[in-house]
Amino acid sequence: MRAHVSLYQFGADAPAYPSIVSAMDPEKSAPIGWGALSGLAADPNDANTIYAVSDSFYQDARIFTIDISTAPATITSFVNVTGASQERLDLEGIAIASDGGFWLASEGHPDNGRGHLLLKVGTNGVVEREIALPDDLIAQGERFSFEGVTEYEMNGQAMVAVAVQREWKDDPKGFVKLALFNPADDSWGFVHYPLDAPASPAGGWVGLSEIVSLGEGRVALLERDNRGGEDAAIKQITVVSLNGVTPAAYGEALPVLQKRMAMDILPHLSAAKGWILDKPEGLTITADGRLILVTDNDGVDDAPGETLLLDLGPAARLN
User: Fold this and answer.
1) Where in this chain does the record put each Phytase-like domain (predicted)?
2) Which of 115, 142, 144, 161 is deepest in the core (most CB within 10 A)?
3) What pLDDT band is residue 234 in, cutting at 50, 70 and 90?
4) pLDDT tens-digit series, residues 297-316
5) The domain spanning residue 122 has which CATH number?
């Protein structure tokens, strides 16, 4: 993006920006520092509370508590994630754990020694469990890996699904893995998800940014390209069902899911008539059934720097 001119008109009922701010940090006597929000989870008991994580742009990995009853929404508190085996985490996904605390997805990076990790942490941010993928699969890993995470129920058991963003070395072109973890026996299973082909005139790639349980074995996925502005073409929510699908152990042929395009979110990202942000990264469903979306501002490093927290309306729209 080289240069642009913005035109403004008076008459809006409310300001379109900012959509999220932070309360004061009592230890620093300054607003709570935040940025690079990359995953969302909703409090199952409080429709006005959601949680977010920040990625590796910052040294400290954080879980933020957000009050969405205000306009703009307000980050009211945070905890640092501590006790991990590696020095720096790249948190890209967060989900509520049914037995308390959170599941976190930390994106690995083969070139700098960061592992692809599923973490179970307490509400205080302390890591309780660290779960890695099978070694043979780790050898196939790429830079674009763990993104969203969600807990869902299958055959009466709590399961954890992690979305891998882009193809790994062992994936056919246009197919990415959903990694399904069973906490009862610490086993992994895998399925393939078919990505849309890039549709932007500027090319680029398409991948997954988030996964959210809809109940009854269905999950919603945030699928997007990596283009912004007038080149943005694919920013969408799809739905797949895991019912009747038997995940395969690594090394076996993976079943392919059937997806349904449920919502085009480009109109929501372009509603303010400004630059269309390329990174919608977090999605969740509140306790009262609203779809909440957040964009990742890359810590304002070589990026437009905006963060949009958007209410996309009733989650029933995905049915």
Assistant:
1) 33-298
2) 161
3) very high
4) 999 888 888 999 999 999 99
5) 2.115.10
Tell me if 11 is assigned to some domain.
Answer: no
- Per DSSP, the three-state class of 10 is coil
Buried b (16+ CB within 10 A) or exposed e, 153-174: eeeeeebbbbbbbbbbeebeee
Q: Which two tokens stand for residue 225?
A: 């390209």
Confirm if 283 and 40 have CB atoms less than 8 A apart.
yes
For residue 8, pLDDT over 90 is answered with no
Look over the chain and give the mean of its residue pLDDT values, rounded to a whole number: 95
Single out the residue of 159, 118, 147 nearest to residue 242, CA to CA: 159
pLDDT digits (tens, 9 = 90+) for 108-147: 988 887 899 999 999 999 999 999 999 999 999 988 999 9
pLDDT given for residue 14 in this prediction: 84
Which residues, including other chains, have CB under 8 Å from residue 64's CB and lie 6 or more apart? 32, 34, 37, 51, 52, 53, 54, 75, 77, 78
The first and second tokens of residue 245, run together, are: 């699908």
**Burial (CB count within 10 angstroms: exposed 0-12, middle 13-18, buried 19+), residue 85:** exposed
Q: How many CA atoms lie within 13 A of 314 on its CB side?
A: 3
Which residues form the domain of 195? 20-318
Tell me which residue of 173, 145, 162, 148 sits closest to 247, measured CA to CA. Answer: 162
Extract the tokens encoding 180.
């399904």
Indicate whether 5 belongs to any domain. Answer: no
Residue 1 in tokens: 């993006």
- Answer positive or negative: Cα dihedral of 283, 53, 118, 123: negative
Q: Quick check: bond before 72 cis, omega within 30? A: yes
Would residue 142 count as lying in a domain? yes
Residue 283 near residue 210, CB atoms below 8 Å:
yes
Supply angle C-alpha 261, 263, 267, rounded to 5. Answer: 135
Of 125, 128, 120, residue with least CA distance to 104? 120
